[in-house]
Amino acid sequence: MDMLATRTTWLAIALFFITIVSTKISRWKSNIHHLPTRPLPPVVNVLALLPSVFKKGFGVTINDLYTRYGSVFTINLLGPKITLLVGPDVSAHFFQGLESEISFGNFAEVTVPIFGQEVLYGVDVATRSEQVNFLLDILKPSKLRSLVDPIFQEVEAYFANWGHDGIVDLKHELEQVLMFISSRCLLGYEVRQMMLKEVYSLFHELENGLNFFSYLFPYIPTPTNRRRDKAHNRLKEIFTTTIRSRRSSSRAEEDALQRLMDSKYKDGRSITDGEISGMVMALIFAGKHPSSITSIWTGAFMLSNTKFLIAAMEEQKHILSKYKNQIGYDALLEMDTLNRCIKEAIRMHTPAQMLARKAHKKFKVQTKEGKEYDIPGGHTVVIPTAFNNKLAHVYTDPHVYDPDRFGPGREEDKVGGEYSFTTFGGGRHVCPGMALAYLQIKVIWSHLLRNFELKLISPFPNADLRKMGQEPKGKVMISYKRHQLLHC
Fold it and tell me: CATH number of the domain at 87-358+387-482, please?
């Protein structure tokens, strides 16, 4: 009995302490749940936005939301949530976050039927990372230096076909010359010599496949998507035939195609013909698509702004004098005025109107006013690049073409914060084709400024908002007349 009593006593004591500990833990958990947390961004229902979108347009609607809610707000798409981050202060995690925290998700799906299922966003992350490194190696500054002479040769040969004077569609001419450049530097002489006209036409169909509808529904068999798929298959056939011809003849060339053929994965595996074809298509897009749009806008803006046109021409005179009429890589790097004219055209009409990622984990943002928000995992996160490029607290008179804003003493893109100018991405996601794009555009406009008197004779173009790249709508007609003032 004494033993039983003792055990009962100890059991009661144990239960007493368990009860106390359980109560403490319960209260601690309750307190944890009641700790203050950061608020979620303000939310607006998409149905409430539709009248504004149809009446005012998407850009004005975003501006209205920014004015009302500030730099962070969420649009509820009747379930899925899209959170917009406006301005450099709230953009850091978007560009610097790890792939496991924030990634492209399914938003790059539109590129899969364009480039193929064997490359980039059609493959796993590890393989994609190695493929991106192959492309980055091709686009290194040391490799770009070797492209200057071939690019100049293509530009000079193309514009040698212009007469003494005449009228042309600048949009068509620049698209053509950039295709010649791409074929010479990226595709190889076989394509350049024998199939360029067909390849140009096929790439045009691929570019048409990059539109808002295809972005949302990349696999729906619309007429545009069917032409895109047909063009992809034919380009793959052309490139595969070229690759196999080189391999069988043991012939090696100095171009991007050859460098991809010689590349190997970390496990020693060679790149397949299909992978090479897809990466070449991606390179052409990186080098031609944004370059084409930006080179046209650069011309339209310069020819509409005499002050900056004269400044760019004076710079050409100075560069020619310094380098004794020999324009090379180092001379191009010193064309700061022309560089600013190009950069301001990009700011005014960015090739990428918005950038999107999928948040996999919750993250915090803090606005320039000091407000903090939690962005939940699962949200689609969008940087409205075109809108950010016109923020009045970053750029003075943001709707005015003013290349000097990037010059010494102002440098508004740097003063505004690290992520003030993100047309080419930022952080972990900088576009690898940026340097090539600037190089090509500089070579083209350096040649045109030195050799032609140019005038814009059609109205200043509007942006084609149906396209994702804000390309000029319709023809951009200019008159030209040869002169020897700046002959190189």
Answer: 1.10.630.10
Q: DSSP character for 109?
A: G
**CA separation for the pair 286, 98 (Å, rounded):** 23
Q: Is 341 assigned a ligand-binding role in the annotation? A: no
Domain definitions of the chain by residue range: 37-86, 87-358+387-482
Tokens (6 digits) for 319? 């560069």
Tell me how long the chain is: 488
pLDDT tier for residue 331 given thresholds of 50, 70 and 90: very high
Band of pLDDT at residue 460, cut at 50, 70 and 90:
very high
pLDDT digits (tens, 9 = 90+) for 366-425: 999 999 999 999 999 999 999 999 999 999 999 999 999 999 999 999 999 899 999 888
DSSP per-residue codes, 164-204? SEEEEEHHHHHHHHHHHHHIIIII-HHHHHHTHHHHHHHHH
- Contact between 405 and 396 under an 8 Å Cβ cutoff? The reply is yes
Closest CA to 118 of 274, 306, 311: 274
366 phi, psi to nearest 5 deg = -130, 125
Signed CA dihedral, 242, 243, 244, 249: sign only: positive
Residues 240-290 pLDDT 10s: 998 998 888 877 777 888 899 999 999 999 999 999 999 999 888 776 778
Helix (H, G, I), strand (E, B) or coil at 269: coil
How many alpha carbons lie under 13 Å from residue 36 in its C-beta half-sphere?
A: 3
pLDDT given for residue 27 in this prediction: 47
The pTM (predicted TM-score) of the whole model is 0.86
Whether the Cβ atoms of residue 471 and residue 460 lie closer than 8 Å to each other = no
Q: How far is Cα 113 from Cα 121, in angstroms, rounded to an integer? A: 10
